[in-house]
Amino acid sequence: MVSAIVTDDSSTVTSTEEDTYDISILGIDRGLEPYRDHFRYRVGRYVDQNALLEKHEGGLEEFARGYLKFGFNREEDGIVYREWAPAAQEAQLVGDFNGWDGANHKMEKDQFGVWSLKVPDSGENPGIPHNSKVKFRFMHGNGVWVDRIPAWIKYATVDPTTFGAPYDGVYWDPPPSERYQFKYPRPPKPKAPRIYEAHVGMSSSEPRINSYREFADEVLPRIRGNNYNTVQLMAVMEHSYYASFGYHVTNFFAASSRSGTPEDLKYLIDKAHSLGLRVLMDVIHSHASNNVTDGLNGFDVGQSSQESYFHTGDRGYHKLWDSRLFNYANWEVLRFLLSNLRWWLEEFKFDGFRFDGVTSMLYHHHGIDMTFTGNYNEYFSEATDVDAVVYLMLANSLIHDILPDATVIAEDVSGMPGLGRPVSEGGIGFDYRLAMAIPDKWIDYLKNKTDEEWSMKEISWSLTNRRFTEKCIAYAESHDQAIVGDKTIAFLLMDKEMYSGMSCLTDASPAVERGLALHKMIHFLTLALGGEGYLNFMGNEFGHPEWIDFPREGNEWSYEKCRRQWNLVDTEHLRYQFMNAFDRAMNLLDDTFSFVASMKQIVSSTNEDDKVIVFERGDLVFVFNFHPENTYDGYKVGCDLPGKYRVALDSDAGEFGGRGRVGHDVDHFTSPEGIPGVPETNFNNRPNSFKVLSPPRTCVAYYIVPESEAEITASDLVGADKTLAADVGTKQENFEASAPVEDGNTRPSEVERSETEETTKIKKPEAEETGEGTADE
How does pLDDT run across 182-237, given as a tens digit for each residue? Predict the structure, then answer.
């Protein structure tokens, strides 16, 4: 084992070394060529770091098994505890097991600043009982003794009867009979992730903190019922301040105890896998809580940066987040963070991560007071934190080495080129980046523009303005737009009408009718045009009213607005059901046609006078009419393929709270346009066209009917929303029936949708069937 610091000037790439580093990313974007030296430098640093890890630790993957060495680990006749704390002068292990008297449990320090101790078992009794409290007690340079939660602790709890009590570290090593055993394999990686962003604690309909098991049993079926294929869990890593939304982490290896035990979290993830849902974790490696008593910051006692997890001075603090910033050049920091990723992947079977605060990591200025214009000088300069970039390259290499099908997403507002390209070609290695400009555009329009001022060209540009070959996760709104001080799209659209105008027993007011229509259009357009994946925050799919306000002193510690009112969407006479049904149907549409993953994306018309956007994604043609009043009968839309088109999904269908003005039993035949092979003679540069009826504030997707193959009927797709929740029960029963045997080698077969009338399905009837149907049948 070795401790070392790799600084920004520790690696110099010479011209003779250039060919040894793959920076083929420069061939993808010629605009990066002037920054060749920057790419050679950072790739050289990455290669050098890997070489050091190979020499001293047995390689990157072995290095990332730090949790098998640090923290508490069982050996045959006792428990070994190790802690990196080079600034400590003396150290002891204290806890319930020794009456908090460390006199007989003094620790020894090696040349790398690692303290260690073995607590022997007493016969059949472990030296430290399972689920008992422990702390690391050490004396720092001022001669002061302090107690801290071990950095690698796997579980931490707080006394619920004492207000403001600090967390305690807990030794977690349940007997075999109490350990959760995973039963189901990871689902395969989807072509396009459709992500349901969720917070377990606030997922209850009651004003309280929900549990992992309740979420698994009650909320996961809802998510699967709406045809999402991925769940992204927020606030998993332990955080002492609940209102931080999980972003001020205190204990990096511990699952938040507010919602249950580590075994309960494993149950949740296994249950998700049984439903065919992949599970991503919000991982926070961009900063750490500044809590001293129960956080990692407690190990910082004024020592040098080489002996700390964090930078010293101003560089070690984020002035807006009031948190500590990691020193990514430090050997033990790399071990800690990389091992943290491996721990969550292997111990809990997460399927990937969403990295929070990546912009803060990439630049020394952390993005503060920066307006990124897209000028490449903003990305590749002395402002770039190469230490952090190299860490992210190592992290993504590790994740994909351990789990090749992992999904890793970056939250970055800067748009750094190469963030979503493989490390093997000089990129940083993320699979996707969040398209963070999209929600800002929708909020700007809803707050500051009348419907008549909406620009079709600007909306289309905002949705399609992303780097070619770097995949994006599009979203109209996430948790950021739902927190107190902001408003969700539904609330921006309908405001106070959401309290009084959502009953189907009365006619919808103009505000509610407009709100329902635009809510469906905004989310569908974002899904269809905004990226190669999609994300929705828990509750926004049905227009959850109001905002999220975590319990705090300012609201008298109330949980009233820190929950999800599922009763609203479950009540049949309320209009929330329509937004939910449309969300379910648009996800089902992608299940059927896989258009979100398609590289074919052509916007053929953005008509400002008509307020209409027409585009193709995959084999579907989409028509969005944002005009508040105008209906267009016989509206001409361009398309690529000739043939017969039918309605695949219609926001105006009755099942979605619409007026049912679009005929679903109509075949739309194409006409050729212009001279074949000469786009400028075509209609909107498309070789074919067909005509449609387009009512105001509606969106319709059309599919081409195969001539000789089995057809997907309109009745299968339009309004396919009513019984998917029941279908989830069928899926669960079938998965449980086909659960693998104890050795885990048997993979359950893929469960087909039930063929009963009570279960929504996508069927392929014989070619001669007409496939005619209506929205209300």
Answer: 999 999 999 999 999 999 999 999 999 999 999 999 999 999 999 999 999 999 99
Task: Verify whether residue 440 is a known catalytic residue.
Answer: no
Give the residue from 490, 469, 483, 476 showing the smallest Cα distance to 442: 476
Residue 411 annotated as catalytic: yes
**Pick among 3.40.50.1970, 2.60.40.10, 3.30.70.890, 3.40.50.800: CATH of 77-178:** 2.60.40.10
Which residues are 408's β-sheet partners? 353
Report yes or no: 60 and 50 within 8 Å, Cβ to Cβ: yes
Q: What does the block give as tokens for 599?
A: 């590289």
Predicted TM-score (pTM) of this structure: 0.90
CATH of domain 601-737: 2.60.40.1180
Hey, CA dihedral for 10, 12, 13, 16, is it positive or negative?
negative
DSSP at 507: P
CA 282 remoteness from chain centre: 6
Total length of the chain: 777
| Paired strand residues for 767 | none
- Cα of first residue to Cα of last residue in the chain, in angstroms, is 69
Average pLDDT score over residue span 509-523: 98
420-457 exposure pattern, b = at least 16 Cβ within 10 A, e = fewer: bbbbebbbbbbbbbbbbebbebbbebbeeeeeeebebe
Instruction: Identify the active-site residue in 294, 332, 385, 411.
Output: 411
Structure tokens at 451: 């419907």
* Parts of the chain belonging to CATH 2.60.40.10: 77-178
Q: Quote the crossing angle between the two packed helices 456-464 and 437-448, to the nearest 10°.
A: 160
Q: Which listed residue (214, 238, 356, 711) is catalytic?
A: 356
